[in-house]
Design brief:
Blueprint lengths: L14 H11 L8 E3 L7 E5 L4 E8 L2 E8 L2 E14 L6 E7 L2 E10 L4 E4 L13 E2 L2 H4 L4 E3 L15 E3 L5 H4 L3 H6 L12 H12 L4 E4 L18 E7 L11 H7 L1 H6 L20 H13 L1 H6 L7 H5 L2 E3 L7 E3 L24 E5 L10 H13 L6 H14 L4 H13 L3 H14 L4 H13 L3 H14 L4 H13 L3 H14 L4 H10 L9
Antiparallel strand pairs: 1-5, 2-3, 3-4, 4-5, 5-6, 6-7, 7-8, 7-9, 10-11, 12-13, 13-16, 14-15
């Protein structure tokens, strides 16, 4: 059994007793949500206008490669071996590569619904070739099984292979199967027999995204297993903005919550009321299959009277709409509107207001679930995403959370960053130091504390902090550039060049690093701005 499998044995172990289910499930999109790149390669090429770069995906020597070349810049060209793919292939597929043991997402995606290669979501207007997009656990967890956590102290350095089992295995919904597979008598989870909230959480672990997902202290979402209380691991928050209705790519649970179907049926309705988790419904059966699910509640008589000439209920009541946060994709409206134009992305019981609200989802059932720590970190996440008008709310909550949770490094670090942005370096330094004493090696904390040290003239401590952070997160270009500039200011030009070259190893199109290297290689080396 693979090391650190924690009782997981993979779907193959289910075949002996559940062969028919295994065979149908192995054809589903879930079962093929990840794997080696060679299993899912589609060759192609395209030119990205904003960065004046050409990309090509091809197979050679039994491996899959992505080449890149920027027009007019001979330094920005090369190739990366694509090792894994992530994604079910319904909307898009992401590929991963490794540099020096650190894993990154390729800057291009295969948008399977349109059969095109294009830039990864959010990078359509990028002026630089983005080759330092870290492959983070939060991005991979839902698509792989038996994910191996990042090596301690790093963001995206993993032991190979990245995951023990490709795709979403049976055990993602039924829990670790080692004991059950031995004799068929060991404990195994049947989601249908769980309490309604635990049943729904099995699907929520991947089909609920929210605007902020805050992991509980000392917990990680990838540690969750079917039957656990999901919210012991993570809390979700949804931003309610009536002025900007629309659908996100992964908000099925949020949409379902506002549907009249869910409101009227309550716990009796779940994802499996409409979806068969063990098989894919063939295209020629889908209309009849999903119609039968609707009529199971609405009745055959209703079906005979209500647009009897239109048997496809989903065409009107679950329309596909373009996703507002991923190009080339569409999402199915799970709010099941009576008319498509009436869809509102607002949760039940939430009053409309001029300013957005941040609401926990699902609604907490008791006071212990209304944790100010998580709400404070959620608001800070929203601020960091660009909603700067929420800064006062985030700061107020962070201050209260720090009083209530003085030994929580995530809270202390977030408050320190907020204080630093306001210009109180002394207070920020105190808070950052406190956070590092509670959790040594926090990359963001070391980086920001190094900035404070450098600003106060303590370059030795700044370099110590930055070197440690850059060693564990070399994809963070800004850290390496800070190091290079300090070494340059101290006339240590070789060290400055080494720092800059390390930046370019992971981010070869960094405009700042290229400019700095040119200045360092001039007859009279300069340190940039």
């Amino acid at each position: 059994m693979p090391e650190a499998s924690r009782g997981y044995v993979g779907s193959q172990a289910c075949v002996a007793c559940h062969d028919s289910i295994y065979q149908t499930y192995s054809q589903t999109a879930h079962a093929h949500a990840s794997g080696t790149a060679a299993e899912n390669v589609v060759v192609g090429e395209f030119r990205h206008g904003a960065s004046h770069s050409d990309y090509k995906v091809y197979s050679q020597g039994g491996k899959v490669w992505m080449s890149f070349q920027k027009e007019g810049d001979p330094l920005v060209q090369g190739k990366r071996e694509l090792l894994y793919y992530i994604g079910q292939g319904r909307r898009g597929t992401t590929f991963l590569f490794s540099v020096d043991g650190f894993y990154f997402e390729a800057p291009i995606n295969l948008y399977t619904s349109r059969h095109v290669w294009d830039m990864a979501p959010g990078y359509g207007n990028a002026r630089e070739v983005p080759l330092n997009l870290p492959a983070l656990p939060s991005c991979m967890d839902c698509h792989v099984s038996g994910m191996r956590p990042p090596l301690e102290g790093t963001e995206n350095r993993y032991s190979a292979p990245l995951f023990l089992f490709a795709g979403v295995t049976c055990e993602r919904c039924h829990g670790p199967g080692q004991a059950h597979a031995q004799d068929g008598k060991g404990e195994i989870v049947n989601p249908a027999k769980l309490p309604a909230n635990r049943r729904d959480e099995v699907c929520m672990q991947c089909h609920l995204e929210g605007n902020a997902a805050i992991e509980r202290p000392g917990k990680h979402l990838y540690d969750y297993k079917a039957g656990d209380d999901l919210f012991d691991y993570v809390r979700y928050y949804v931003l309610i903005d009536p002025q900007k209705p629309g659908l996100r790519a992964a908000s099925q649970f949020e949409q379902l919550a506002v549907s009249k179907c869910k409101k009227k049926t309550g716990d009796a309705m779940s994802c499996t009321s409409c979806h068969d988790p063990h098989r894919t419904i063939p295209a020629d059966e889908r209309v009849a299959y999903y119609r039968s699910k609707c009529l199971a509640c609405h009745g055959a008589n209703f079906g005979e009277k209500h647009h009897a000439n239109q048997p496809d209920c989903t065409q009107c009541h679950m329309p596909a709409t373009s996703s507002k946060d991923i190009a080339h994709t569409a999402v199915t409206d799970h709010s099941i509107p009576r008319r498509p134009t009436t869809t509102q992305n607002v949760l039940p019981g939430v009053k409309t207001a001029e300013l957005p609200q941040l609401e926990p989802f699902p609604k907490p059932t008791n006071d212990k679930d209304s944790d100010i720590r998580d709400l404070a970190l959620a608001w800070q996440s929203i601020v960091n995403s660009g909603m700067t008008r929420a800064e006062p709310e985030a700061k107020q909550l962070l201050q209260k959370a720090a009083e209530q949770f003085p030994d929580d490094p995530a809270v202390i670090a977030a408050l320190a960053y907020d204080v630093q942005r306001e210009g109180d370096g002394a207070k920020a330094r105190q808070l950052y130091t406190r956070a590092l004493s509670l959790c040594p090696g926090m990359v963001d904390v070391e980086t920001n504390l190094g900035v404070l040290d450098a600003q106060s003239g303590d370059l030795r401590d700044a370099v110590r902090l930055w070197q440690d952070a850059f060693r564990r997160a070399p994809g963070r270009s800004e850290i390496g550039i800070n190091l290079a500039r300090v070494h340059c200011s101290e006339k240590q030009f070789e060290k400055a060049r080494d720092d800059t070259m390390r930046v370019l190893e992971f981010n070869p199109d960094s405009t700042e690093a290229k400019r700095l290297l040119k200045e360092l290689n001039s007859d009279a080396p300069r340190c940039g701005r």
